[in-house]
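Subgroup meeting minutes
Present: P.N., E.W., G.H.
Scribe: E.W.

1. P.N. recapped why we're keeping a running log of single-chain structure predictions: easier to compare across weeks, and new members can see raw inputs and outputs side by side.
2. G.H. added today's entry (537 aa).
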Amino acid sequence: MSQSVISRDQLLIVGAGPTGLTLAIELWSRGVQCRVIDKRPGPALTSRSFTIQPRTAEGFARSRCIDPFLAIGKQHRGMAFHFRGEDTVEYLDFGVLETPFPHILIVEQNDTEAVLREQLASLGGTIEWDTELESISTDADGRITAVLHHNNNRGSGRERIHPDWLVGCDGLNSTVRTQIGFDFEGTCYAGMRFRMMDVEVVNPYPGSEAWIDYWIDPDYMLLTTALPSAYRVLISDMNDAPRAQAQPDPGAAREAFQPVVSSWLPDAVLGVPKWCTEFDIWRRTASGYRRGRILLAGDAAHIHSPAAGMGMNTCIQDAFNLGWKLAAVATGRAPEALLDTYEEERLPIAAQVGEASHMLHLIMMAHGDSIEARLEIIRQPEFHYQAAARIAGLTYHYRDIIAQPPGLICLGGLTAGDRAPDVPITSAMSVHDLLGHFGYTLLVLQRRPGSTVAADVAEAAAPYRDLLRTAVITSPDIRATAPAGALIADDNDVHDRYGQPGDDTLCLIRPDGHLALRLPAADMDMLLTTLNATVLA
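Output recorded in log:
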């Protein structure tokens, strides 16, 4: 297909939170301009979500905007669970995970959004604040009509536009989701209340500088941890109040929080909160993510228990999955059917995240259940590592969803749909260092002495060179015959994980860091079939 130029009015993103901003960056980074609107008068100034999990950090690294997050964030080692009456602390240690970012990066959401806005601006993108989507409709041919209401520097009044694509990143109360008729089914954690504040603390718990601490009583849960600017203190309990107060009185909130904190940390003294809020929690998923040329992402598509801080991260990862696909379709490099895989891949992930957050919810916030029942869950074999990996986002995959060429023989081990693990290649480079660009990555694992695989791949992949980065990795066992430009691995770990014993292997990695194909180099014709179907469809 020929590539076409896309004007910013042809693609509309509704919502300038983390999801909408990340999606806009993914598009602009690939040369696809888009328009971003938000009905709010300006950026949010409150901290709200505060965790950037490893898989999200990996995505920001591929998008070349991780450094500002690392500069302003605090790197916490993981999560610590303290149970009433128990001396043993149960740790979920992210330091043992196989990722370039083996920690929870603590960044307040207003700062996360500020970094993303700055990145978007550097690419040429802007945000139209005070611009509300009033209505959307489609005709029999699928043509979109969107009516916007402006109260900003574009003037006051209505604007009727016809974008080729529209993505609703407009949150829990999504106008886009409602108007295209998707259900938002699920449940409320009835009677449960979340209260939280950002506050200075005198004599805080020392561990909160390195861990997110959960203090678990049979009837409530207290969270304490150090933010870059203050401390986050959060209480979850059962409450008969008719609804949460978005802006409770700070003094009253402090008086309510202090006894709970003192019951665990007798020396800790809370100051006057810088910000405090209350909210109810839900577990809901939209009945679909796409209707024609209108799509949903982030909280507009799914919300979960905030247990372990996976909500915002899942939203951002929606944008990583959708961004490269929408860019390819909008520019004519891929058929519209590629976007069918967005819902096919991300809807099951939302279900998996919902299950994982609910499992952690049963440990932290099953108010009224015994401590023994919580400990029975957390002390299951391998629970600590598996829970850390799931929270980090490293276990989610698209196996059995990504189509493979007919007749492909499975090599065992890594398969299409798996997250590409970050395996060291040399002392100075790992696999993820090769993924910091906006196209596909082809790993050529050379293990057979005297093979011509590097030259063969260079010739075969030449038509795709603008959208495909190739890296030849030669086993140290045959370093003497390594082709020019090859990376000579320090050991065979990368070949054992990505390759096969005794022969050359090809591994194609998608722009979102998931495997698209892994096959023997002798089956290069199947690689070309995949490239024709996905990279330059």
